[in-house]
Amino acid sequence: MTALDGIDFDLLPGEVHGLVGSNGAGKSTLMKIFAGALPDFHGAVLLDGRPADLSSPQAALAQGIAMVYQELSGIGPLSVAENLFLGRQPTAFGGRVDWKAMRRSAREYLAELDIEIDVDRRLDRYPLGIRQMVEVARGIHSGARVLILDEPTSALSPPETQRLFELIRRLRQRGVAIVFISHFLEDVLEICDRVTVLRNGRRVVTKASGGLNKLDVVHLMLGRADAVDAAYSDRVVLPPRTATPPVLRATGLSLAGTLTEVSLEVSANECLGLYGYAGAGHREVVHMLAGALTPTAGEIVLDGRPLAPGNVHEAVRRGVVLVTGDRAQGLFLRGEIYKNVTLPHLRRAVGEWLTPGREIIVAREALERVGCRPAQPWRRAGELSGGNQQKVVMARWTLGPVRVLLLDEPTRGMDVAAKAEVMRLVGEMKRQGAAVVLASAEPELLLAHADRILVFRRGRIAKEWTDAPVDKAALMQWA
Fold it and tell me: The whole model's pTM is what?
């Protein structure tokens, strides 16, 4: 199978170049070649008109090519300064680390980039947006003239995204060439000078971003215009609130420093959307409902009976399940797919006589039911694309009763087509009687799929939308 097929790509000094395409289009493969992670390729890569040595990430970095991956690689317990100089610490007499010089240099360098933070503070004490900027700064500090950013805004709030964009603009003015990979097409069109679209391992087109709109890009990515669904509508009208009694009710949920007196309920065949910026508290709510977080106050009632707080096993046993956007958290990526599917339901799904053969038969049926491609249970889960990994999680829960389906950014980092596939499965589970709670910082996702929307701001519910027209601007205004 050919991951890339004769792709031509050029990058100019001081340019932000957007790279978009569906899952499997070849974006990651192309960028990993540039970053030295895939040295075995055919073709030529020229840097300043001369062949580039891309035999390893170290060789690429030595020539000024750095890549910041979607899953941040910073070391949380270390300070900002230690992360910035990781592997390149200044030394004093006797080869010892010169901590004073390192802190001073870190402050000076970050000040050059207008990043005002305490370099002595642990990295994991800062919000995700700051950690993202530190990683970008580390790449530039290593001498990078070409910086590759992989999904840099996928987990950032709009204010954090704008702060990152300000840094990117400053780097552009300094002549740094930047490749910006993202499924957030609004971000691509806002920050990029040119956009290249890949499809099925080939380059479809490269155009100036000023001549494109979001729907143009979606059409080019998918090769068809009819794939654009309600997620791209400017405005939707939410239905009246259901009269069906709630399946799950939460009252007075609080978490010190994060959440204050949040109450909500959701019924069967209903999708309750929770919207907010990063840190608003909506994501913590779904983790509390799943038993993954223990509230400091409040009560959760399922089918009229209390649900023990902080008890994931009881929640799953009673049909409350969680799907997160962090596939590494939801799956054992190095394990076989069939083990990931059957693990929570071995006795119920496979029976008393447990054998790999019986597990594979059950898992294959579940994978085919959710449209996972390829439906090969013996493969490693980590070999699948992000969209298909999420389908493995969905296949797992089809084997057991689902009363409440909790979703925390379930389509994070996915392209338009993969999002539609995953949300189609969510819609099927809702129609079969599940109550769905969907937490996301992506307004389009909620406008397309939620029957009712709660907007969170600073740990509280700021607004409820039901039986009324609502659009993206209205949601963002209340968040």
Answer: 0.61
The full set of domain ranges for the chain reads 16-228, 238-478
Count the alpha carbons within 13 Å of 459 in the hemisphere toward its beta carbon.
11
| The length of the chain, given as a count of residues | 479
- What pLDDT score does 231 carry? 45
In CATH, the number for domain 238-478 is: 3.40.50.300
227: its two tokens: 């794939």
Q: For residues 69 and 87, what is the distance between their CA atoms, to the nearest angstrom? A: 18
282-337 pLDDT, tens digit per residue, is 999 999 999 999 999 999 999 999 999 999 999 988 999 898 877 666 677 788 88
Task: Return phi, psi of residue 306, to 5°.
Answer: -60, 145
* Equal CATH topology for 16-228 and 238-478: yes
Helices (H), 142-233: 158-173, 185-191, 214-222
Rounded CA Rg of the chain: 24
CA angle 295, 404, 302 (to 5 degrees): 60
What tokens were used for 299? 């009560």
pLDDT in tens, 5-36: 889 999 999 999 999 987 668 888 899 899 99
Q: Across the strands, what pairs with 20?
A: 197
Q: What is the 3-state secondary structure (H, E, C) of 222-281?
A: HCCCCCCCHHHCCEEECCCCCCCCEEEEEEEEEECCCEEEEEEEEECCCEEEEECCCCCC
CATH 3.40.50.2000 fits 16-228, yes or no: no
